[in-house]
Amino acid sequence: MLHLRHLPAVAAADDGAPLPAPPPLDPAARRALDSLSRIYPLVLPAVEARLEALQDDFIAQLSRKMQGRGLAPQGRLRLSPAAGNTVLVEGEEDEAAGLRALFEACPYLGDLFHEMARLAVLAHGMEVTSQAYTGEGNNLAAVVADNTALLGRYQMCLKGSLSHFYLR
Question: What is the pTM of this model?
């Protein structure tokens, strides 16, 4: 999230006086952040376990539906969330078209894919937030730089037994 701030009007000449310090974080907000930093390590494994279970279920359902329609893509197909709980399918056009038709006929698969995307971003965000707040490595810039995938998209690469999910 980007917050824009306008610089206050200042006198043309700098008199060298130090600027006032920003107000400290109020105690309630500080306690909430401390609490979150302790909760994340407890909640994160449950979120990740749920995500893994959903991914396994998604792969099983998708494979069964593909077999039922005689779809056996040979190339690499990339799936990512799109508007309205739909799934964007990218890859060789003939193979992608068959999978697009499958998602149109089975909208619950799109719902499931979007739920997995939300959980993946949530889990990743919790991990990054915890690292940033606790000062893991004492280098916030490194934490942010190492986690630029948070700004990307949740995707699935569909390539037979090499199929996998990732945040891009």
Answer: 0.70
DSSP string, 74-94: -S-EEEEEEGGGEEEEESSHH
Q: How far apart are CA 46 and CA 145, in angstroms?
A: 26
Looking at the DSSP bridge assignments, the partners of residue 167 are 154
96-117: per-residue pLDDT in tens?
999 999 999 999 999 999 999 9
Q: Note the pLDDT tens digit of each residue in 51-78.
A: 999 999 999 999 999 999 999 988 888 9
Q: How far apart are CA 103 and CA 53, in angstroms?
A: 20
Q: CA-CA distance, 49 to 11, in Å (whole number)?
A: 57
Q: In the chain, where are the structural domains located?
A: 30-165
- Residue 147: how many CB atoms within 10 A of its CB? 17
